[in-house]
Amino acid sequence: MSKDHSGSGDPPTIVEKPSEVIVDSAEKGFRADSGSFKEDVSPASPVPKQSPNRVPRWIPFQYNRHKATIPLNGKNLVRAAEWFAGLAILFFGFDQGVMSGVNTSPDYLRVMGIDSGSDRDSAALGGIVAVYYGGTLCGAVVAGVLGDRIGRLPTLGFACMAAIVGAALQTSAQNLAWMSIARVITGVGTGGLNTSVPVWEAEVSSQGTHGSAIGFSFFLNIVGLSVAYWLEYGLRNSQHSFRWRFPLSFQIIFLCILLFSINFFVESPRWLARNGREDDARYVLARLRTANADENDEQVLRELADIKEIVEVELREQNANRYMAMAFKKDRYNVRRRVWLAVNLQIVQELVGIGVITVYAPTVFGQAGFSENKSALLSGINDLTYAAAVWVAVLTLDRVGRRPTLYIGAIIMGISLILCGIAARYVSDTSLSESVRFSWGCVVCFGTFTYTATFGATWLTIPWLLPVEISPLHVRARGSAFSVVGWSIGNGVVTMITPYLFKAITYWTFILFALFNFISLPIVWALYPETARRSLEEIDVLFTSSSIWVWKAEAEAKALAEADPDAFEAARHGDIDAVALRQRVRRQGSQATIKSTGEPAADGQA
Predict the structure, then answer these.
(1) Which domain holds residue 142?
(2) Which of 198, 244, 276, 602 is 20 to 30 A from 460, alpha carbon to alpha carbon?
(3) Does the model's pTM come out above 0.85?
């Protein structure tokens, strides 16, 4: 595509050469004679009258500006909020890792009636872990609705209470059914926290600090995982129920601190504005953005105005902000495609094999020929390197980009798992000497450590970042819930089948998950656009394409930038109507040539 700049600056005209560039007639507002958008082409949908959302008084944890809150303002209050959110993520990490040690306790296996080593017992062991993710799926869906209706803080409170009840039931479990129900209830609470906390944290954090906040949260997530491992390592010599009941009860400490702290924090200013509490939203913004809670501060007023604009979009598009509409209904924002990209990436994240390592790490090291004591010790050290590797992602993610990071991670992790599989095959070969088998066991250990560190530096963060980056603002809260749904499905499937895989195909389990790593490469290349160093508005431009393929969406965005720079710039700077009304440029054969002339387009020109 070439340009003739001999004109006087009039809008560019697309000329066929020799193929045709088609502009959808359905896209109202595009002038075929000039290749540009008309001003005020169609009146915006009327904004429904906004009235305060009356949340019943009996619902606890509602925000009241006149109640005692944490005596901090400005950056200190934001940091406190990040620590509060981090504690919830730390609990999440602990809860993920705690079952790894529980599954190796002989007393636990005896109480659950799954200590015979049969295929049925292997399936039951995986099932107990997997039903938890059924609970997280339900909790995410419920929290997505409650978060919009009753507020972020009350939703956090209910999620904490559900998790506390579930943890207490797990601690006192006496049989398989009891434990399974307790795991589901705990999962409901965890799913609610995983949905609500990231949204609340993003809405109270300062603009431009989201990346560092995400990195800090994931660091605490792996710290929680490490705490679970080391706690259980300290109890490894106990043969009584205390070995597994105490770690399960220990997570209640985190939850009680969260529950007690909720009333001392501020509600999301965006939720307050969305529900007709503009004065409260201004007050909360003043506390979050200024050291002296100045409600007349220019930044506060500007951000409040931005929030009100977003609220107007939400009110116009409120029918689209529903789960069924988001997942199955086609709209001008292509929300459906964005939702399924977020869900699928979370599922792929689990299929690359991290659940095999985090939940069944002692089993992995046991297959490598290490004793129970050494397996637990290696699992704990592995978690420490895992936590350290997260900081690599924090430092490199925005510089390297999302797509290259996922490519690099999948390749290294796939190779690492192949090494583990090959080495595990020789570890189990009794015809080899003990020293040779031990050497191959060290190769399994090296491959596992390399895999885990690589995952922490690459695939750990992006599937959680992407839903925030690709979701339009008016569906972002429930978009986060869909992300947790995908995570729950992926985790549930992997953790349920892994014990059976280790028993049925032994070292081939590593090869299977290595294969999934390599399969992820074309999926990322074809379907997931690069979001690093792009504004949310630029990402919106990409997703207005009717094509699911990344290269076509990129080509259309480039063509729009050349054919109508004004419309493209308006879209890049947040003009939602410009994004919605953009022309659909489709290429058939050779490229079109753009001419900048003041003359009307001739026949055959669009």
Answers:
(1) 74-265
(2) 244
(3) no
